């Protein structure tokens, strides 16, 4: 029998790690205080991309994340991920040219489109920009479904899920992790992986690991279904939006939501939904739109905005917390499972070790 591994958190990162570990022969138990994919993973815009990055190392990690989804799809032909590409005009002029040059130097596939080509691709846009970049390799994950699909394969390989059971601490023996503590008692484990999103910091504090987290609430609006109008993910200066397979248009309330730094949502959900809808209607003036729902979630963003991934604290403890969990979800399952079971460091993860926080 393989080692006993406890994974705390049943979001997309925890689900992906569980799938890989179980298929590699580990005895996996996933602990979730609520229900799987019920927090940030189930309330995400779902954009899989490498065009958002602060440095080259993070670009390489995100690009590897895209490739990992294609490997995953070989094993999961019904995987709820599509690849519509992204039409991007968040900046114009010199800033757009600089973006294109930087991504071209990094080898990222793109096309530069003029206004006529943009109108052909997206005829419902009211005012087509003068130019835009098209990223053909970017995709969309229906994040709640993907999480459940990964968990289903983990369970097929022998993993178990305990929902509604909140882990409150850890048991250690001789400086090594030996189990997790919940209200009902101690459950033994040889390895513990904390992938608990915004709950990770409080858990890690109990074993002397500092994990500063930024406060980053996010709101996501869904329209009522409309006819097919958007062939791509759309990224404008005032809004990012896409259309789901069910016809609903999805848009974060914050413009440039990947770099959004607001610590508090100051408007009511209804006001945020109406504001998002107003901006969306300006972009799509010929499409009758009504908002149907709005979800709010706290995004798990470590203190410097980058992932926190790696062994830390007592021997056998491992942390995997990040905001870019959607883009990196498939990749994290591969890398973390190899580090936990094989004991060898994965070079892609070197810049993101939790020890950088002291």
List the helices and strands and how they pair.
Layout: E1 4-8, H1 12-23, E2 27-32, E3 47-48, H2 56-75, E4 81-82, E5 86-88, H3 94-105, E6 111-114, H4 115-121, E7 131-135, E8 139-141, H5 143-156, E9 160-163, E10 169-173, E11 176-182, E12 185-188, E13 191-194, H6 200-205, E14 213-214, E15 217-223, E16 233-235, E17 240-243, E18 249-252, H7 269-283, E19 291-298, E20 301-302, E21 308-311, E22 317-321, H8 325-342
Parallel strand pairs: 1-2, 1-13, 2-9, 5-16, 13-22
Antiparallel strand pairs: 3-8, 4-8, 5-7, 6-7, 10-11, 11-12, 14-20, 15-18, 15-19, 16-17, 17-18, 21-22
Helix pairs in contact: 1-5, 1-8, 2-8
Care to give the gist of this entry?
This protein is an alpha+beta fold and 358 residues long.
Characteristic terms for this protein:
8 helices; six-stranded mixed beta sheet; globular; 358 residues; alpha+beta; 22 strands; FAD/NAD(P)-binding domain
Estimated helix fraction: 25-40%
Please summarize the sheet with the most strands. Answer: 8 strands, mixed
Number of domains: 2
General shape: globular
CATH superfamily caption of the largest domain: FAD/NAD(P)-binding domain
What's the CATH C level of the largest domain?
Alpha Beta
Q: Which strands sit side by side, in order, in the main sheet?
A: 6-7-5-16-17-18-15-19
How many helical elements? 8
What percent of residues are in strands? 25-35%
Class inferred from helices and paired strands? alpha+beta
H/E order of the elements?
EHEEHEEHEHEEHEEEEEHEEEEEHEEEEH
User: Alpha-carbon distance between the termini?
Assistant: 36 Å
Mean pLDDT: 95
* CATH overall fold name of the largest domain: FAD/NAD(P)-binding domain
The poorly predicted ranges are none
Number of strands: 22
Q: What would you report as the Rg, rounded to the nearest angstrom?
A: 21 Å
What is the architecture of the largest domain at the second tier of CATH? 3-Layer(bba) Sandwich
